[in-house]
């Protein structure tokens, strides 16, 4: 933003615009991917017997 403002002729105003729709869509997609990425290993770990999990070396 400061770089753009340094190139603008005096008297011109620069108003940054945030595309809120796209921003919220990307944020929602990131949350969905994070939940899926964390839920799959947790689901697999809950099916494993704790004793087997501690004895297992992969």
Structure, explained:
By secondary structure, this protein is mainly alpha-helical. The chain is built from three helices and no strands. It has helices spanning 2-7, 20-46, 50-55.
Mean pLDDT figure: 85
* Overall SS class: mainly alpha
Assembly of the depicted chains: single chain
In whole angstroms, the N-to-C terminal distance is: 49 Å
Number of beta-strand segments: 0
Coarse morphology = rod-shaped
State which percent range the strand residues make up.
Answer: under 5%
Tally of alpha and pi helices:
3
Which sequence of SSEs, written as H and E, runs from N to C? HHH
pLDDT under 50 segments (min length 5)? none
The major β-sheet equals: none
Helix content: 55-70%
Q: How big is the Rg?
A: 24 Å
What is this entry, summarized?
This protein has three helices and no strands. With 58 residues, it is mainly α. The radius of gyration is 24 Å and the shape is rod-shaped.
Q: Which features characterize this protein?
A:
rod-shaped; 58 residues; mainly alpha
């Amino acid at each position: 933003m400061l770089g753009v403002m340094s190139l603008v002729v005096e008297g011109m105003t620069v108003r940054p615009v945030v595309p809120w729709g796209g921003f919220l869509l990307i944020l929602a997609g990131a949350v969905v991917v994070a939940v899926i990425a964390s839920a799959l290993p947790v689901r697999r770990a809950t099916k494993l017997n704790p004793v087997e999990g501690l004895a297992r070396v992969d």
